[in-house]
Write a sequence for this structure.
């Protein structure tokens, strides 16, 4: 597995933006997904006040890049419908969080729940 290469976007108006310098490909339940070079991510979208408990950057970066791309592009929505496509995005995140950091099950579940509870407003934008 190749390392993720990113560039911090200090010119971006938001202070937590990173640009992929090399594409990253994932095999998901729904199919193959490639996040292209040039994509901008904030990794885990966590309010700053919670960064001590839920860091936006860490071993879970791959999971959060895939999740951001999936939400930004509403992947598989045409094939599966909004509800199922979004559910799969969140499920992929949760499973990948547990693989990346198996000793942080409670934190991973909280991150998953936050996506389930609050993610719809980002999906429909």
């Amino acid at each position: 597995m190749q390392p993720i290469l990113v560039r911090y976007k200090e010119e971006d108006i938001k202070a937590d933006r990173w640009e992929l310098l090399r594409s990253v490909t994932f095999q998901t339940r729904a199919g193959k997904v490639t996040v292209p070079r040039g994509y901008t991510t904030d990794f885990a979208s966590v309010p700053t006040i919670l960064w001590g408990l839920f860091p936006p950057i860490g071993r879970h970066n791959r999971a959060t890049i895939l999740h951001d791309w999936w939400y930004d592009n509403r992947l598989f929505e045409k094939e599966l419908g909004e509800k199922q496509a979004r559910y799969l995005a969140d499920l992929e995140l949760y499973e990948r969080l547990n693989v990346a950091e198996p000793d942080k099950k409670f934190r991973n579940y909280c991150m998953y729940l936050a996506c389930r509870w609050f993610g719809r407003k980002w999906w429909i934008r």
